[in-house]
Design brief:
367 residues; Glycosyltransferase; three-stranded antiparallel beta sheet; 13 helices
Length: 367
């Protein structure tokens, strides 16, 4: 059997991402912007959603730029479109709400500045001041993604910016204090036990580790990675559960409240496998440890065929992208879930970029 060429698969995904919508891609040549998603029917016929989303798009672009900055993924072929989208983000930056800024737009501008793709120092300064005023502490775990941009800004653009320093230190301290004994970050986010909201804080913490609390951050990340691997997946397939059926979690006032979401707890998402891999690869990049490297190999095998269908999920979609979601019984067609989001494209590309030098662990490989 052939080994997976992670770089080639990442390059293929980049091609789809920046293909124009008329060629089953996410890119719009007229607006210089990414569509939020591609929709499909039960026969896997695809079409653009015609909905633009800078919330999704900013996250996606951050993942692409981070893939280049941390994992040396070659994005030169798409540089023109990347610069065009960064220009769009810069132009609209002061109109974005907090969620759009923290989920990706701020990080994208910072990384674009570092890589020489944009000139947005004023907008980045605006973003730092905005975050200082609107984010005294993290109460939505997705906001922890802004730590990526803050960290790279301090490391590579303006190391002496006291506002950014104080903001980063404060957010890191509060995030570390919020971690419970299982490794979940109970910031007040009632979805803190959802897989993506467990992984995002790890990305931000790892990126900040060269600036503050390195040892505390290392311990925090290792606790979460190990607990999630041991307790939050279907062991038959190394597939991560989205969330528990029911749980207690602290709300923003620190009061434990009951949450019950039974129907979606057994959904397995391709992006959740990738979110874990990104966490492990960023950890490996900053802490120079391959302690959990095998976990990432195993997690991606769910995509290549170690799943209830025993099928490569890229082959099923018909467009060279992995199917996004599967129920525990193998059902792929779930009402309201028949699409591929640009944010999922970004995480898929970033996970593969981090795996470029790896060798598959077992027989579940691309043919």
């Amino acid at each position: 059997m052939n080994k997976i060429n992670y770089k080639n698969v990442a390059d293929q995904a980049l091609e789809v991402l920046f293909n124009d919508k008329n060629h089953l891609g996410f890119w719009d040549d007229k607006r210089h912007q990414l569509y939020g998603k591609l929709n499909h029917d039960r026969a896997w016929n695809w079409k653009p959603s015609m909905e633009f989303s800078d919330y999704y798009g900013g996250f996606c672009l951050t993942m692409v730029l981070l893939s280049n900055r941390l994992f040396q993924l070659n994005i030169a072929k798409h540089e023109t479109k990347i610069k065009e989208y960064l220009k769009h983000i810069k132009t609209n930056f002061t109109r974005f709400n907090k969620d759009t800024l923290t989920y990706g737009a701020f990080n994208a501008l910072v990384l674009g500045e570092i890589l020489g793709f944009s000139n947005a120092k004023e907008e980045i300064e605006y973003g730092i001041n905005y975050l200082r005023d609107s984010l005294p502490r993290i109460t939505d775990n997705q906001d922890s993604l802004a730590l990526i941009g803050l960290s790279f800004y301090l490391k590579e653009i303006s190391p002496d910016n006291q506002t950014a320093k104080a903001l980063l230190k404060n957010l890191i301290e509060n995030l570390l204090k919020s971690q419970n004994r299982q490794g979940f970050f109970e910031t007040g986010d009632i979805r803190a036990y959802h897989h993506h909201r467990i992984m995002y804080p790890l990305w931000g913490l790892a990126c900040a580790s060269e600036l503050v609390y390195k040892e505390e951050i290392r311990v925090s990340i290792e606790k979460t990675i190990q607990y999630v691997w041991d307790n939050r997946q279907d062991k038959s397939y190394d597939a991560f559960w989205w969330h528990p059926q029911a749980y207690f979690v602290k709300n923003r006032w620190g009061i434990p409240v009951p949450i019950a979401i039974p129907f979606t707890s057994q959904y397995f998402y391709e992006c959740h496998q990738c979110f874990f891999v990104i966490a492990e690869r960023i950890y490996q990049s900053f802490f120079k440890s391959e302690r959990y490297a095998q976990y990432s190999l195993n997690a991606l095998n769910w995509i290549w065929g170690k799943n209830p269908l025993s099928k490569n999920l890229l082959d099923i979609s018909g467009i060279g992208l992995p199917v996004r979601v599967m129920e525990a019984n193998g059902n792929l067609h779930i009402l309201g879930e028949q699409f591929k989001g640009s944010y999922e494209m970004g995480s898929f590309i970033c996970a593969l970029a981090g795996m470029q030098d790896e060798t598959p662990a077992n027989k579940f490989v691309l043919k």
